[in-house]
From TrEMBL:
Species, as recorded: Mycolicibacterium madagascariense
Protein name as it appears in the record: Aldehyde dehydrogenase
Keyword annotations from UniProtKB, A to Z: Oxidoreductase, Plasmid
Molecular function terms from GO: oxidoreductase activity, acting on the aldehyde or oxo group of donors, NAD or NADP as acceptor
Top-rank taxon, per record: Bacteria
Keyword Nucleus attributed: no
PROSITE patterns per the UniProt record, alphabetical: ALDEHYDE_DEHYDR_GLU (PS00687)
């Protein structure tokens, strides 16, 4: 483990299988880069498909034999231990996160403090959940019957996570599953293995969570995630990542009809109404596009402006993007760091070029900041006059890029917003809140923000429509996803 002046922190190399922190047989490691400099800063164990099979076997045995599924108080005790241990490790976890993601240290609160608090939330929510519900007497053709609903663990849950908010999503995908009595195998993303292996280390060293109940398998190979999603011993896959991988996971699970929870890509629209307060709505829109370098699934990256105020809106966005603090993620006050990798930045620059080729006007940005030649930085970029059917308006960019398209009336704005294979989230800005609300109801998405008021949080269900996902995280709905309902008919 090393710590340098920049705060670079290498994470745990070992995975966790059946209660043991271990390297893969033969000891193969893969490199982890710091996106802020492009330098290799450490390694993680490169697990094989055979390692994944061992981890699933351990989770399956723990699910069949252990008391974990039945003892709610013990699960509460273990998850409160985990909460306290994560809190003790907080500053190390923060440095690991900035090291492998390049997320600015100034904006890590939502990715460290919040998920740690969520562990406690799920422990308490799970302890208070009503697992046996008496629905009373039902009249049937065989006479009256009492019915009880028994909420039971699904079994073995495979959790597969992406790199953009890795520690948060590792917690969000596994902790409610564990509290609901399932056993878990976590497969973190290739670019961010340490936010997963650190969780494994802390579970192994600082909690009473029994061997096999929680496993973490880091690997540089997509086949290892694919093996998890196809294993017949896995009852459920919970996945966050791209729509393309989501489709592959659904197909892999079809043979054994796996329960599948998918949170996928997005291409959300922000309808700015003609009565909106541009001076507050548009700088906030620019900030959302640049914080996290645009690597956010719920980012409203398509700005729809009324033609009557189009030039005014483009000017406000331009000024906000040109003044956005981009730079080294370790520097306090910096709000936009690098893209996660060279390949990801190349993809972003390619999509910007395709937008310009299809007739969009480059208002600002479009390249690499001159003062940041090392690492994977991208200029905040504004493309105006964007054709809603072109590639840059249809594909998820995952970069600090906003596209702007004019519209003539509310119906046209809704039609452009809904012209997408995705349906994750959306935004409406306008001073007439009833009008904005009516438009929000017409958007075919799982979530909508009105006038910057966030829809996202632990207490409210979050999920996508269309090709943005299946099922929900958060809220009581999100917890119930990790439970199967058994209906029992019995004498009155
Ligand atoms: P990705 O789909 O490439 O990878 C996600 C995970 O899937 C990784 O762990 C990867 O190893 C694994 N994987 C790859 N191929 C697999 C296969 N065939 N079978 C099983 N697992 C496989 O996504 P990414 O590039 O890491 O993350 C970015 C994507 O995640 C974006 O599309 C973004 O919108 C999405 N995302 C969605 C949400 C949400 O809540 N909807 C949140 C964050 C990110």
């Amino acid at each position: 483990m090393t710590t340098t002046d920049t705060g670079i922190q290498a994470g745990e190399q070992r995975m966790l299988i059946d209660g043991e922190l271990q390297l893969t047989d033969g000891g193969t490691l893969f490199d982890v880069e710091h996106p802020g400099s492009g330098q290799v800063v450490g390694q993680a164990t490169d697990a094989t498909v055979a390692d994944m099979a061992r981890a699933v076997g351990a989770a399956w045995r723990a699910s069949e034999n252990a008391n974990w599924a039945r003892d709610i108080e013990f699960r509460f005790h273990c998850l409160m231990q985990l909460h306290d241990a994560l809190d003790r490790n907080k500053e190390r976890l923060r440095r690991v996160l900035v090291t492998e993601v390049g997320c600015p240290i100034s904006v890590t609160g939502a990715q460290i403090e919040e998920p740690i608090a969520e562990v406690k939330h799920w422990a308490e929510h799970g302890r208070n959940f009503e697992y046996l519900v008496d629905t009373g007497i039902h009249q049937t053709h065989l006479g009256p019957a009492r019915r009880k609903l028994s909420y039971e663990p699904v079994g073995v849950v495979g959790a597969i996570t992406p790199w953009n908010v890795p520690f948060y999503l590792n917690v969000a995908e596994t902790v409610p599953a564990l509290m609901a009595g399932n056993t878990v195998v976590l497969k973190p993303a290739q670019l961010t293995p340490w936010s997963g292996t650190e969780l494994g280390r802390i579970v192994a060293e600082e909690t009473d969570i029994p061997a096999g109940v929680f496993n973490v398998v880091s690997s540089n190979a997509n086949e290892v995630g694919a093996a998890l999603s196809a294993d017949p011993r896995v009852d459920m896959i919970t996945f966050t990542g791209s729509t393309a991988t989501g489709r592959a996971i659904l197909a892999a699970g079809a043979a054994t009809v796996k329960k599948t929870l998918l949170e996928l890509g997005g291409k959300s629209a922000h309808i700015v109404l003609d009565d909106a307060h541009f001076g507050s709505a548009l700088p906030l829109a620019a900030m959302m596009a640049c914080v996290m370098s645009g690597q956010s699934c719920i980012l409203p990256s398509r700005i729809l402006l009324p033609r009557s105020r189009y030039d005014e809106g483009v000017a406000v966005l331009k000024a906000a993007m040109e003044n956005f603090p981009v730079g080294d993620p370790w520097t306090p006050g910096i709000m936009q760091g690098p893209q996660i990798s060279a390949a990801q930045r190349q993809k972003v620059l390619g999509l910007i070029a395709s937008g310009i080729e299809s007739g969009a006007r480059l208002v600002t940005g479009g390249g690499v900041p001159e003062n940041l030649p090392n690492g994977y930085y991208t200029q905040p970029t504004l493309l105006a006059d964007v054709d809603p059917d072109c590639q840059v308006a249809q594909e998820e960019i995952f970069g600090p890029v906003l596209t702007v398209t004019p519209y003539d009336n509310d119906d046209e704005a809704v039609a452009i917003a809904n012209n997408s294979i995705y349906g994750l989230s959306g935004e409406v800005s306008g001073t007439d809140v009833d009008r904005a609300f009516a438009i929000a109801q017409r958007m075919r998405t799982g979530n909508v923000t009105i006038n910057g008021k966030s829809h996202f949080g632990i207490a409210s269900p979050f999920g996508g429509t269309k090709q943005s996902g299946l099922g929900y995280r958060n809220g009581t709905h999100g917890y119930a996803e990790y439970l199967a309902i058994k209906t029992i008919g019995l004498p009155e």
